[in-house]
Amino acid sequence: VVVNRRHRRDSLPRPPGPKGLPVIGNLFDIPKTNSWLTYEEWARTYGDIMSVEVFGQVIVILQSPKAVRDLLEKRGTIYSDRPSLPFFEMAQWGWFLPTSRFDDQWRACRRLLDRSLRPSATVQYRPTIRAKTVKCLQRMLTQPNDYRAHIEQLQSAINMSVAYGYDVKENDDPFVETGREFVRMIQETALPGALLVNDLPFLRNLPDWFPGTGFKQLAKLSRKLGEEVVAGPLGFVKDAMANGTAQPSLALDDLRECTSEKGERDISLALGSLHAAGSDSMVAVLTSFLLILVLFPSVQEKAQAELDAVTGGTRLPEFADRPALPYVDALCKEVLRWRMISPLAFPHSATEDDVYEGYLIPKGSYILANSWSLLHDPATYPEPHAFKPERFLSPDGHVIDDPGLNAAFGFGKRICPGRHLVDSKLFIAVALVLSTFTVGKAKDAKGNEIPVPGTFSGPLVSQPDAFACSIVPRSQAAVELISAPVE
Ligand code: HEM
Fold it and tell me: Whose CA is closest to atom 20 on ligand 1?
């Protein structure tokens, strides 16, 4: 019976897809940028579950809510691994949650993060998030052209404060710099074709003196960098605990409960992942929010009118105002949907052979869920390329809860654990910026408007290409509100 079943399974076809060339497969069919748009197009020919192959590696692409739910959610025990990259193994980066394998170490860290970042737990960090965002507005007031640097600073400040109770320095903070360098290394070395050893794993067995094995030295340096991301900030908290100066933070809560060396290591890995993974995506989302204000002035006016009606322009908005700000709330949802920053989530990987709708999905296949096509399906989101916050409002003006929007944060067991924190960070940043500034097209020396490309790109996180904009306070009262001291 077993042999029979095995035979039947092996004779099943793989999900359909474009025919590739010998050896390299579909290497040249898959575009280097915006591949999700090509996959969306291919779905019309091959259906919602299709596959391609590159150098023998099968890549299955899921493009309907049903396929994603059936595989990544209902069969999560099979589909929650990540592809293993030889360079990541050499650099011992297995601890970094977004790239870690589906193993006991991942489970322990994920449990810690899910507990720390659940909605009821993130509420206590709202005052910190708001205060840090107001400080960011103060920087925007004096140096509006450096908006991107201010947003980056804001994200590091929030993450380091929430995770470690650590106040980042204005410039050249050692922990922040190390975290950014680490993420940059991940992005550079994960790209297909960036390092030959990722495509030809046997190269890692060559001796160090062999020409072309510079990646070995790079792996040693990368390993050290990863260790610094993990150990540095936690060491700060332990010292502060010993001195009695530790500030409230996730690290403090977790360390107080921790009774073992293994437990302490898990805390350091989980929080290292939070601090390294939590910045880039948020920077992309807030930069894209500013771009949206430049591109769609009527959206900005409508949101400002709603905010003014609630605050009277005499105070800054608070989290408690949210129920009275449905349009602003809907705008935040549309920011996450419209030009989403993770259009293919992160690749999952299958740990067993599986059969779905008559197709064989071989063990080791990479699984890409095309979140872009899910969130741009005209049947669910009419006029999907228009920026329309109203799509998330009911006819009587209430915010519609749309579970489908979770696709912006990935799927199943690997769904982004930071999504509830994002909800708070995004709402308060959007509300504070709109109530105090007007964002528009910048002008050159001759007074002509500088064109805005409005395009997005990026290797792993899709973000707006650089654009100039003017960020001007709405009134003298707004300047005074921003400039007032914050706790
Ligand atoms: C708008 C901002 C963000 C977006 C759009 C986003 C999106 C994502 C996506 C698509 C994934 C992959 C899910 C999958 O594999 O199916 C992910 C994973 C992850 N995100 Fe986020 N994220 C954001 C912000 C954050 C923040 C603020 C944090 C930390 C506080 C965070 C921490 C993580 C971690 C640790 C993982 C890895 C989870 C795992 O593999 O188990 N993210 N995120």
Answer: 416
Q: Which residues does a 6 A CB cutoff place in the pocket of ligand 1?
A: 97-98, 110, 273-274, 277-278, 281-282, 285, 341-342, 345-346, 348, 408-411, 414-418, 421-422
Handedness of CA 40, 64, 408, 385 (dihedral sign): positive
Q: What is the pLDDT of residues 250-298, one digit of tens each?
A: 999 999 999 999 999 999 999 999 999 988 999 999 999 999 999 999 9
pLDDT band at 2 (very low <50, low <70, confident <90, very high): low
Nearest atom (ligand 1) to Cα of 421: 27
What range does the domain containing 286 cover? 2-483
Ligand 1 centroid – CA 181 distance (Å): 18
Residue 387 CB-density burial (10 A; 0-12 exposed, 13-18 middle, 19+ buried): middle
Find the CATH number of the domain harbouring 279: 1.10.630.10
Question: What is the total count of domains within the chain?
Answer: 1
Instruction: Output the residue whose Cα is nearest ligand 1's atom 43.
Output: 416
What spatial distance separates the first Cα and last Cα of the chain, rounded to whole Å?
70
Ligand 1 midpoint to CA 416 (Å): 4
- 3 state SS of 184: helix
- pLDDT per position as a tens digit, 18-75: 999 998 899 899 888 889 999 999 999 999 999 999 888 899 999 999 999 999 999 9
